[in-house]
């Protein structure tokens, strides 16, 4: 069992000081204990609308009022993008929130220690409903208690998202469960459909963020966060109590146009402990007042956000070519490892975009990626050395998808723009170089993540057709590559990749020979690529199909997977 706690966020001193939506949620919680009232709520709104900020505020207020039963915050990082631990986490938190629950649930676990490997539905019955029934009448603790589940859309498996909604609905309908449940997510089609269907829809209240005055919420958030910076920043004592002025706050609210992502990026940037917050706020105000457009164009709805991104990314001490390489590499690596997670559940080498992974794959000096990203913490999560040493590999992520959208548009990102074709060619050449180097050593994937990712990349990008993924992994972009890049690619001996699959395919796929059934070269107008690269693989596949998978070398060690 493990916790998914709410991170720090805006924390009003009392309910009455909160924005309107939190006041409405407060009223919903207060009435949830009354007979016949709804006990399931869904907060829905687009990306960047402030859903997580709202949930964190509610969680902190409920915790202060001793009515928080439990919370589960989904996230994009590995381990928080699945629902496997949802019920166990809530049961663990109920041990502190519900008198007598700890003893009751421990008795259930003692009867079946394999319970955590059972289905979520079985866990719901045995870890929550059965212990609550054993406790009997709740008596004094039957006050409105709250369970918060945030970021359901971050759960990557749509089937798990649907199951989670039905489980949470079942919780609120059970006679022994004295809690209300508040879920937040983007209105993804599968989530929207599940909430709109029987039996969930009649028992659920929906909070639509667009119906609220987001300007008031954003102003409230800014006041709280700038107060926190004045109190906690090393230079905070030098800031006057009137910093920032009311005029500055109102200008920021106007510039945000309802986008919490714009405001949270500013707060992250200004709160950077390495520089004076007053100077950083001045930089922000200058950037959004006189934005430098990379390309002359009509006014863009993202102009202010783009100006902020451009300001933060304009670090003179960083090599722009290396910065562009790393920025475009991050989402490309995630596309590959997340696609592979659809194909296998086996453990494998750690291939997510860690600083070590990027340095190794692109042949950079150790520490280069950390240096490049060291001043971009307002936009990008970069694991520090302590996290890596104590918790194993951690991965680089953009805080918001708008960053990737910015990089994909030349009129927005200027010299940091890179076409998808250039990215694919860059990765393909790096994959080839890593596999060619590997062919001289035949090293294990656990000691050569560059070759392991190179093999995975070439398989997914070039030889697996019709993969059920949200990403477009076709190779049509290579048709615009330069002759020199294509020649480097066409010279590669594809049998090296087949050799890697033969030796270590089990490290990427639980049934490597079964996976080879999907190895079907993609269509391409590049005759050289078809004749010299893709067609020969069909012969190699036939040979590999004759191999007994039991005879393949087993992994030397069990390595956790990013997938």
TrEMBL record:
Keywords: Repeat. It comes from the Eukaryota. SUPFAM superfamilies: P-loop containing nucleoside triphosphate hydrolases (SSF52540). The keyword Repeat applies. Pfam families: NPHP3_N. InterPro entries: NPHP3-like_N, P-loop_NTPase. Residues 35-186 form the Nephrocystin 3-like N-terminal domain. This is Nephrocystin 3-like N-terminal domain-containing protein.
